[in-house]
Amino acid sequence: MKFSMNIYKKRFALGIAALLMATSAMALDKGSTAPAFDLKGVEGNINLAKYQGKLVYLDFWASWCGPCRQSFPWMNELQSKYGAQGLQIIGVNLDQKNEDARQFLTTTPARFLVAFDPAGATPRSCGVKGMPSSVLIGPDGKIIFEHAGFKEADRAALEEKIKSSLGAIK
Amino acid sequence: MTKIIEITSVPLITSTGPETLPASSDMQTIGAALLTAALLLPGVVKAETPPEHASLSLKYLNYEEKQAGLKRITANSPSLSLTTPLGADWSLDATLTSDDVSGASPRYHTAISGASRMNDQRTAGDVAFTRYFPRASLTVGTAYSTEHDYESRALSATGNFSSEDKNTTWTVGLGGSHDRINPTNLIVKNETKKTISIMAGVTQILTAEDIAQLTLSHSRGEGYFSDPYKALDRRPRERNQTTLLARWNHHFLGTGGTGRFSYRYYSDTYDVKAHTLTAEYVQPFSQGWTITPSLRVYSQSAASFYFDPVYDAQLGAPFPPGYQFASTQPSSADQRLSGFGALTFGFKVSKQLTSDWTVDIKLENYEQRGNWRLFHKGSPGLAALKAQSIQLGISKQW
Amino acid sequence: MKVIVKKTTTMLLIASAALALSACGTIKPVQPWEKGNLAKTAMTFENDRLESRYGEHIYTSRESASGGAGVGGGGCGCN
């Protein structure tokens, strides 16, 4: 019995090691340049380069993501509150079917820019690890922070980070 | 208030004088299994976040079974289920069921003569709390059920742990139950049964359209397992069970439907080995309609101490040939421990009325036959069991 | 001895199957934004709780096999 347990433990350890290696972090580090993108938007294209000089809050969302629904009203509020101070929220939609995204937007409207990336190139290059995910990009194009998930408790902390980053611009 | 009416009693003919067999009532009535199901449910693997919406569901089951020449058990069971998030990190699941079971059942094998009628009410409830962590969750639950001659309590804890990319989730669970039996025929008094079970499983997202799960469970039980209402039913005071369950869901991009498949292998110390294969297909249509046809194939071997309906030439039914009165050897003439195969055909239709309300109806047809056992011969001489059930449900979320 | 070897072999096979299952998903892991279809209720293993319960309790009272996916079930008068 002891003999078999050792084999079991070895294989278990190997399995875990394989798992950990495969799922190792891919997120981009703070301070690295945010990857460029040029995506289709609701009206015309959205090119990240155009927003150099602004504080860009990039939010990755999809129609099937529950917490996304809760984050939209909050993001609308932020955009109206801090837009004049240089904040630009861009919601990057990752639905495979565009109609699902459009349907979502009719019931949960966005008062910020919306871009469509069904191929998923942007979240891949940003190392997105959960849905929703957000990336705060400074006016110099460098990443300030990345955040995965969205809970009630997150709102205050995220808003604080945005406020202080805006303060740093001035 | 429960009533057990004994229609006939089968006298034992011996030289020492007549004895009557215990009043028969079907202990294996549907509602009684409610609590077994309580925490042995599929779906213990919880997502990492509390549910987005709270929901309340009401469902009603009508079940009727029969065999050739005898209408058997009828059960009517309404139940209520509540799921609600509690803040950002907790959720609550609670269920309440009431059960009205009545009808006739054979006292041994599928014998019509001597079958007795019963009428029973059962109530069962369970509550579980789940705490959510960034990549894990812990659920603790308790269950209770009561009927006139049987009381059961259970407690369990289950933990889920996910990998960083959330594609792999490991599950471990531990549970225990304590039952008290006080049959009305007083054949035993205040008997108890204790069970402890453990479970370990892994759920893996294979592709964007495939998810699979493998679960291994083991349970050890000791105490009183016999059915006091069945003739010559004497079971070992220990029962250990092992189950291996494999499940796979596949989403069909072409149709937008989902195929759900499962295979379960069961083995216990009664020498019962069983295979269960289920398949269902969920197809959504426009206007919120969804139809789900389903199929279940089941096969089991007989318990080692089950005896066929072949009786002693002198003693007659229900005594097996060469029966010794003083014997302490286990024995049973319970159809449930015989070797057989069973098929279930099901069809469910559900309609999402508004974003908050859903209604559904499910019809199932079940048949169990000795000669339907897969790969081996089933137990001979038993009448086929047929059952039909209908479930009506309504659900509200907010 | 034979029983111990058989049981050990079975345990190893099950453990390997579990590891193989999780290894399968690490070859080309599914990204968070690709999980739209997996989020559908029909694709989860948590379905209509009451329906599952009715099914389980009908089967455990008419057949010998029980359980599989959960733990700690209470008892019933259905030996």
Sum up the structure in keywords.
heterotrimer, B: 398 residues, mainly beta, 16-stranded antiparallel beta barrel, 1 helix, globular, disordered N terminus, C: mainly alpha
Description:
- Chain A contains five helices and seven strands; from the N terminus they run αβββαβαβαββα.
- With 170 residues, chain A is an alpha/beta fold.
- The longest helix of chain A is centred in the first third of the chain and has 21 residues, at 2-22.
- The termini of chain A are far apart.
- The model of chain A is unreliable at 18-26 (pLDDT under 50).
- With 398 residues, chain B is mainly beta.
- With 79 residues, chain C is an all-alpha fold.
- Chain C has helices at 2-27, 49-62.
- The longest helix of chain C has 26 residues, at 2-27.
- Chain C is flat.
- Chain C starts with a helix and ends in a 17-residue tail after the last helix.
- The chains are: A alpha/beta (170), B mainly beta (398), C mainly alpha (79).
How many strands, which pairing sense, and closed or not: the largest β-sheet of chain C? none
Computed Rg of chain C: 18 Å
- Provide the low-confidence segments of chain C as ranges: none
Average per-residue pLDDT of chain C, rounded, comes to 83
Write the layout of secondary structure elements.
The complex is a heterotrimer of chains A (170), B (398) and C (79).
Chain A lengths: L1 H21 L15 E4 L3 E3 L7 E7 L4 H17 L4 E7 L4 H10 L5 E4 L4 H6 L6 E5 L5 E6 L5 H16 L1
Parallel strand pairs in A: 3-4, 4-5
Antiparallel strand pairs in A: 1-2, 1-5, 3-6, 6-7
Chain B lengths: L2 E3 L5 E2 L6 E2 L13 H5 L16 E13 L2 E17 L3 E16 L10 E18 L2 E12 L2 E13 L5 E14 L9 E17 L2 E14 L14 E14 L6 E11 L4 E12 L4 E12 L39 E13 L4 E13 L15 E13 L1
Antiparallel strand pairs in B: 1-7, 2-3, 4-5, 4-19, 5-6, 6-7, 7-8, 8-9, 9-10, 10-11, 11-12, 12-13, 13-14, 14-15, 15-16, 16-17, 17-18, 18-19
Chain C lengths: L1 H26 L21 H14 L17
